[in-house]
Specification:
CATH topology: MetI-like fold
Distance between the termini: 42 Å
Helix content: over 70%
Order of helices and strands: HHHHHHHHHH
CATH superfamily: MetI-like
Shape: globular
Number of strands: 0
Largest sheet: none
Strand content: under 5%
Number of domains: 1
Structural class: mainly alpha
Length: 268
Amino acid sequence: MPGAKQPPKRRPAMQIFRDIGPVRSTVLAVASFCAILATWLLLSQLELVDPVFLPKPHHVLGEIVRQLGTAEYWSHIGISIFRVTAGFLLACFLGIPIGIFAGAFRAGSAVLEPPMEFIRYMPAVAFIPLIMVWVGIGEWAKILLIFIGCFFQMVLMAADITRRVSPDLVHVSFTLGASRWQSVWTVLVPAVRPELLTMMRLMLGWAWTYLVVAELIAVNSGLGYAIMKAQRFLNTDQIFAGIIIIGLLGLFSDRLFAVMHRRFFPWI
């Protein structure tokens, strides 16, 4: 209609749920990291924060290069990766089947979910004295703490994912003569696998978060140990280097799960 006010044009990047394309997505992601780095550089160069507490980015980069040039630091990285992987996989091995059972059967949900809901609010750090009593101060103590930090959340998330499967799929399997357990194995498990992989990707972030806490338990190795050792001498360059390396390892593992998701479930 002539003279009618035209609705304002919306930028594609700001439309709800609209895909912005891989190039623009990459540009925005790089820009966000650059903004964080620029803010850090500005604060450190102008010394708006004491250099003891906020070292300059190039000092931290030099420390990362120096640390990665030593065999000892690679040993710290290797043992930390082992602890995270062992605790996370143990939580997956036990938590996912239990969660599927709780999500598929009302009786399982009634029995399992209330205690899981109760325990998940208990901070994993509070279990450290008990863990030391149960398994000592060896590697199992670190693995068990990471396991406790992930397991209870994983059970509840797996149960919720299972409950979101359409009941019609299960009813069709019964019509075709499947038993209850056949229906679980041939219908529910395949239906929840994509979302379970996404859930595992999220929970792996929790596992990395608990790593530094786990490496406070009578250790002399690992990235958490290296960070705490640097803290004793107020070597903030080394502290930042350790934190950034943990972040990079977590980012790599996250991207690995993203690639696996695209590889195994390309239709989603």
